Amino acid sequence: MTALIILAAGESSRMGQPKQNLLFQNQTLLQRAVETGLASVCRPIVVVLGANAGAIEINIRGDVKVLYNANWNEGMASSIRLAINEIEKINEIEKISGINQAIITLCDQPFVTSTLIDTMLRKSIETGELIIACSYNNIIGVPALFNKALFAELLLLKGDEGARKILKSQPGAVTIIPFKLGIFDIDTMSDYEQLRYSGN
C-alpha cells in the first residue's frame, strides 16, 4: 500500500489566517487535498494538523486519519516524523499488507490531482526507484513518493527541513514527473489572489 501524507500543520503567519480554510472552487484548500487523496489509490490518507487545528478540523470530510502535531512550531520536519511514525505503527498491525511507500504533499498546492498521484504510483512500479518527485519552475519537490527504505531518513529530518533535503541527497534514486502547475503554492494573500485571478 501507499500512504498519502497531507501536511497542514503550519500557522499561515504570512497569510494572516489559516490558509487551510481558504476557498478555491467551492472547497477549502485542505478539503481539496483530502478529496484528491480519496480519489487516488492511496490508503491511508493521513492529515497532519497543528496550529489552529480546531478551526481547521471541522471542515475535513472523508475517511482520513487526522494527526495532531503538538510540536508544529518546530517546523515541517516534526509533521513528517509524526506521520511516518504513525505509518510504522500501522505496519506493525498490518504485517501482511503493510505500507511500503508514502507520498508527501502539501495542502496549499491546489492543482495536485488524483491523476498526478496515481501517475507517481505507476512510475514507481515501472522504474523501481526509491523516490518519485515532481518538477516545476526549476524545482524538484513535492508531491514526492518515498519508498519505505527511506523512512528512517525522513525520521531524521529536523526543524524546517522538508522532504526536499532527501531529494537533494539522493539524486541518483529520483525519477522526475513534470508538474507545471506545482508552481502555485499559496503562502500569502497575494498568492491567493493570483490563484483566484488565474481563473483555473
Could you say what the CATH topology is called?
Spore Coat Polysaccharide Biosynthesis Protein SpsA, Chain A
Largest sheet properties:
7 strands, mixed
Q: Strand order across the biggest sheet?
A: 5-4-1-6-8-7-9
CATH level 1 name: Alpha Beta
The end-to-end distance, rounded to whole angstroms, is: 32 Å
CATH superfamily: Spore Coat Polysaccharide Biosynthesis Protein SpsA, Chain A
Low-confidence stretches: none
**Helical residue percent band:** 25-40%
CATH architecture grouping = Alpha-Beta Complex
List keywords for this structure.
Spore Coat Polysaccharide Biosynthesis Protein SpsA, Chain A, 7-stranded mixed sheet, two-stranded antiparallel sheet, 23% strand, globular
In short:
By secondary structure, the chain is α/β, with parallel strands linked by helices. The chain is 34% helix and 23% strand.
What is the topological layout?
Layout: E1 2-8, E2 23-24, E3 27-28, H1 29-39, E4 45-49, H2 53-57, E5 65-68, H3 76-93, E6 101-106, H4 114-127, E7 131-136, E8 139-147, H5 151-154, H6 164-169, E9 174-178, H7 189-197
Parallel strand pairs: 1-4, 1-6, 4-5, 7-9
Antiparallel strand pairs: 2-3, 6-8, 7-8
